[in-house]
Specification:
Radius of gyration: 13 Å
Strand order of the largest sheet: 1-2-3-6-5-4
Largest sheet: 6 strands, antiparallel, barrel
Helix content: 10-25%
Order of helices and strands: HEEEEEEH
Shape: globular
Strand content: 35-45%
Structural class: alpha+beta
Distance between the termini: 20 Å
């Protein structure tokens, strides 16, 4: 089943930086829960979409480890249809965004 964003999400996406489809394994954590490996599906300089994780709460921070980068902080904004949408607490620098996209192409 392919994920289809809602109309509001589509409008939000048009207003934000462009998104890149990626397929990259990363680790995520919310609160004191253990780190979990998930698949990063898309990313922009302002946010990303990953596989859904049981027990994660909307509106709470999550931490993301992407190979080769420092720990990234984000807020979980929505979850549905097996996906979680997150917004970085600080916009990614363009070179960091480019590195993530390139890394995905190498792994893919």
């Amino acid at each position: 089943m392919t994920y289809q964003p809602t109309r509001q999400e589509q409008a939000d996406l048009r207003q934000r930086a462009s998104r890149a489809e990626v397929s990259l394994t990363c680790e995520v954590r919310q609160g004191q829960r253990p780190w979990a490996k998930v698949l990063l599906h898309d990313i922009s300089e302002t946010g990303f979409r990953i596989d859904w994780r049981p027990g994660f709460d909307i509106g709470k921070p999550i931490y993301v480890k992407i190979p080769g980068l420092q720990l990234l902080n984000a807020m979980l904004r929505w979850k549905r249809e097996g996906m979680i949408g997150c917004e970085f607490t600080s916009k990614l620098y363009a070179p960091v965004y480019d590195h993530i996209v390139r890394q995905s192409q190498i792994e893919g």
